[in-house]
Amino acid sequence: MKKIQALQDKFNKLISEKKSASRTSLDEPSVIPRSIGRTIEKLKRNLNPNAETEVIQEFRRSRYRTIVSIRYLLILVLVPFLMNQLAKGIIISPLVNSFWNNNQSNIYLNSSQEERALTELKNFEEKLRFDFLAGESLALTPEITEKKLKQKASELAQKYNLESNNALKSIFADLLSVATFVALLVIGKREIAIFKSFIDEIVYGLSDSAKAFLIILLTDLFVGFHSSHGWEVILENTLQHFGLPENKDFVFMFIATFPVVLDVIFKYWIFRYLNRVSPSAVATYRNMNE
User: Fold this and answer.
1) Which of 53, 223, 283, 285 satisfies CB 3.0 to 4.6 Å to 263 for a cystine?
2) What is the 3-state secondary structure (H, E, C) of the chain?
3) Phi, psi (5° rounding) for residue 50?
4) What is the pLDDT along the chain (290 residues), one digit of tens a residue?
5) What letters, b where the CB count within 10 A reaches 16 and e where it falls short, cover 140-171?
6) What span, in angstroms and rounded, lies between the C-alpha atoms of 101 and 117?
7) Angle CA(202)–CA(183)–CA(273) in degrees, nearest 5?
8) Which of 228, 275, 232 lies closest to 251 in space, CA to CA?
9) Are 121 and 153 in contact (CB under 8 A)?
10) CA within 13 Å, CB half, 221
């Protein structure tokens, strides 16, 4: 533990030195081009008699940072997921089933479910008539039609009753997962700092064309006009997952505003931070986006 703590202290000191050096180099103008200055610093490091020892220490810090980051990422993903599944199967499901079977008389949580059930029943009835007219069904008396419609209505009632039941379970299980995720973030402040530096090293270690490609990919997926139907599908599935009514006005309003907010955040990040850290990447991004 002492060795790990010592490595962590050295790592934090190195990160702070790099940040202060980067701020100084960005804020203070220099007569000598920065590329020449970096080349001279590289030569100094290579001629340093302790260069091999420093390389080994840097490798150990990098390995420690990578191991901690990957382990913490797995914890952030797996622990809330396992908590969701275990709590849903052991605690939440028996309680919700008991409450739903004893106290709930209506099988629909909202009007959207009822509308979908009626639509499916009407489509089934139209399919029966089509099969009869096409010759695929030999007889279609009113009694047979009513019997089949009652059977289909019973199947739809069981289907949407189960959907409503699962929606209630999902609400409580997902709330527990979110609480677990937030608790992990609060507890693991040290791991978050290491993970952030690990991500920064990966992202800012990419080439300018790779950075520009990732920015364009993210903006086109989450912000671009081509993804409006994708947002609609995601929102409708999310509302169904939690048993909420599928309000078209809310969906369209969300699509009209949320991507715009994301676009502003991306542009502010490019202008405020990336433009100072990697201006060549911003220039490449603008050329590729034209």
Assistant:
1) 223
2) CHHHHHHHHHHHHHHHHHHHHHHHHHHCCCCCCHHHHHHHHHHHHHHCCCHHHHHHHHHHHHHHHHHHHHHHHHHHHHHHHHHHHHHHHHHHHHHHHHHHHHHCCCCCCCHHHHHHHHHHHHHHHHHHHHHHHCCCCCCCCHHHHHHHHHHHHHHHHHHHHHHHHHHHHHHHHHHHHHHHHHHHHHHCHHHHHHHHHHHHHHHHCCCHHHHHHHHHHHHHHHHCHHHHHHHHHHHHHHHHHCCCCCCHHHHHHHHHHHHHHHHHHHHHHHHHHHHHHCHHHHHHHHHHHC
3) -95, 15
4) 444 455 455 545 544 554 444 444 444 444 555 556 667 766 666 666 776 777 788 788 888 888 999 999 999 999 999 999 999 889 898 888 887 766 565 677 777 888 888 999 999 988 888 887 877 666 777 788 888 899 998 898 888 888 888 888 999 999 999 999 999 999 988 899 998 888 888 877 778 788 778 877 877 777 655 567 778 888 888 888 888 888 888 888 888 888 888 878 877 877 777 777 777 777 777 776 66
5) eeeeeeeeeeeebeeebeeebbebbbbbbbbb
6) 20
7) 35
8) 232
9) yes
10) 7
Instruction: Say how many residues make up the chain.
Output: 290
